């Protein structure tokens, strides 16, 4: 079945401008969402989603109370939630493989919503992008809407704070109004958010994406375990070149939106490159080709199960 707005099937829009003109209430909803205060999320209840990652869980999860992601400029944050089971999946999409990613996101929620006693519907929240010069955001917005239209399930578009409806002018430059979102898994509330903590294994996960890793499911909600990898990369000493470059050069060549990146973007890139130089082969990070697993401790931190010999079964 197609994508629905106010319980009615929508035709594929020719542009995001066309979409918002047809459905003005989406504009108002986006304005209301953008006006909400940004919440700094406590790391001890959070599962953070990096670029080209997704994770799904339910209100029964005792390890994760909030799914969250930020640092989205042209990227879009995609949230699907089932109103009956409360199961939710959050993904950070950059347009690298939209058509294959959307079915994974939907399946992650439906697979956790099989109890017939918990009837409900699938709701979609899209946040991200802005009116960037290259129109990268516009393309991703339309591709995501089209991909959701092709799913067999009824999916109701509730929040659409994307592209021009997520655009603000700051010092004459276009920027995204909302960079990050969180969802309270217990209540279903979706809100603008920021995350000082982006772990576990922030640099390893960034290295996976930097070296071409595709969209990955990083969480097993039944076990309460974050799973990273295994993934592959080979030694590449040439990337050390970037460590000696100034901020403007790194932004120009390694960002899709140089004028809109958060202040820590360049340091994040350099930290990722440094990690790859210190681990030139992925074999050293994934001994025997095994993934890294992390489990929440009683103190609320993520602990590497491999290091401490903890079972993940």
Question: How would you describe this structure in keywords?
Answer:
313 residues, alpha/beta, 8-stranded mixed beta sheet, 5-stranded mixed beta sheet, 8 helices, 19 strands, 26% helix, globular, disordered C terminus
Description:
- This protein has 313 residues and is an alpha/beta fold.
- It contains 8 helices and 19 strands.
- The chain has helices at 16-22, 24-35, 98-110, 136-149, 202-210, 247-254, 265-278, 305-308; strands at residues 3-5, 8-9, 39-40, 46-48, 53-57, 66-69, 76-82, 88-93, 122-128, 155-162, 167-170, 173-176, 181-184, 190-194, 216-217, 219-220, 225-228, 292-296, 302-304.
- An 8-stranded mixed sheet has the order 2-1-10-9-7-8-5-15, with helices on both faces. It has a 5-stranded mixed sheet with strand order 3-14-13-6-4, with no helix packed on it. A 4-stranded antiparallel sheet has the order 16-17-18-19.
- A hairpin with a 2-residue loop joins strand 11 and strand 12.
- The chain is globular and about 55 Å long.
- The two termini are 37 Å apart.
- The relative contact order is 0.17.
